[in-house]
Amino acid sequence: MKNVPTSSFATESKRLVDQGAPLVFLYATDEREALGVFGVHAVFSSGGEFTTLRTEVPQADPVYPSLTPTIMAAHWYERLIFDQFGIRAEGHPDWRRLVHHENIPAGTHPLRKDFAWDTRLPKAHEPYPMHRVEGKGMYEIPVGPIHAGIIEPGHFRFNVRGERIVTLEGKLFFKHKGVEKLVEGKSPQEAFPFIERVSGDMVVGHTLAFAEAVEKVCGASVPARAKALRVIWCELERVSAHVFDIGNMGGMGTGFTFLAAQGFRMVEEMRRMYEDLVGHRFLRGAIVLGGAHNIEKVGTDFILATLARVEREMRAVLSVAYESDGLMERFETTGVLSREAAIAYGARGLPARASGVDFDLRRDHPYAAYRDYAPTVLMKKAGDVRARFSLRAAELFESIRIVREALAALPAGPAATELTYKGGESLGWAESWRGGVIDFVRLDKDGRIERCAISDPSFCNWPLFGEIGPGNIVPDFPLCNKSLNLSYSGTDL
Questions:
Q1: CA distance linking residue 437 with residue 477, whole number of Å
Q2: CA atoms of 278 and 50, how far apart (whole Å)
Q3: Is there a contact between 404 and 235 (Cβ–Cβ < 8 Å)?
Q4: Burial class of 301 by CB neighbour count within 10 A (0 to 12, 13 to 18, 19+)
Q5: Do residues 373 and 405 lie in contact, with contact meaning Cβ atoms separated by under 8 Å?
Q6: What is the pLDDT of residues 442-473, one digit of tens each?
Q7: Per-residue pLDDT tens digits for 179-209
Q8: Structural domains in the chain?
Q9: Sheet holding 138-143: strands in order across?
Q10: What is the pLDDT of residues 52-76, one digit of tens each?
């Protein structure tokens, strides 16, 4: 970690980005009790390592020069930091609220240490203006936050001319749970159930990033078997998620219900397998602090047999999909995300790789046993719905290959080790099926959480709708949405 003056924080950050080190995380800390300041930390991916710049912001005047004018990837982070800490990024182009809705009183900053987690707030009526385009033939279409499906709440505002989208803006955080506040003062073990529930369908990704951070603070040596098991559980979660998304893009995105019927059937089979193996359909319990849920010989056979069926049936299903001219026509040139926009916004995971961004934490910042079971990082260049669909298919088969390889070479020995908690701080990360999860964990001298900052990939990818929506017709918005399948809960925290 490098400390830099507030006056040079933005220029030093831009220098790193210009050298090819993208901004991957921006978070704040309340250090007023010990140092009389707030800390703002910018994390960059640089040559297989993470470089962190830290600047101190005085509590009397918590202002620093905004990174957003030159690093677009910072724009939501800086709005979040203001809502949660009251630290203002001077020069930010959009000072509307992000986390806080209209009912939260001005001056409420929950992640300050002097704000109690159980504070009852009076109801306010603060304004939140949505972007509006004026002109002849222009209309506004509000969508949500309550939707026709079983998805979580989020509001979308379209400015359209006819059916053509001119601008598209999202308003989220209806499901804000306050996870980062709720885990303060807890031991990592007490906090673990909260981490498992950050995003219900991304349990392995979030728990693994958190566990890796805590284990580094503790100086723990995770057993080789546990590291390999973590790879297996991560890749299994990726397989079932991609199968679901392929089905969802067909059934809910285009009305090609054959894909939905087959994909959802296979996902159900995998979730029943998860319940048999770990006791939970969404893999809670697969990752534990210090290790992972063990897999015995009977479990190995069960997994291999299930994956063989899924692989065989998915190849057959995909051949039908690719032969449908109508389906492919809906996919092609719809919801295009350019490589330049993906880089500028700090896009993560599959949406970025489908636009030609060559980045994957499993390869670029190896963790668990990914040095031994390195993935082939697959990419597409078109950046449209078809590219994201095809990349999902390719990635799920690559994940099946990794699981087979890891199961065949699973080391002997324990699946977990005991941790001794102590003070310190560290980053932990994992490439979930949605993209990179990065956690910052600071433990106090008693081994309790002083600060836990969580970066979910959906938080980075929701702003992409402002890029992929315009130019498309309104009926293609659900398809664009399903092609990214972002998490409301993971973003809202």
A1: 26
A2: 33
A3: no
A4: exposed
A5: yes
A6: 999 999 999 999 999 999 999 999 999 999 99
A7: 999 999 999 999 999 999 999 999 999 999 9
A8: 2-90 (3.30.460.80), 183-492 (1.10.645.10)
A9: 138-143, 155-161, 164-171
A10: 999 999 999 999 999 999 999 999 9
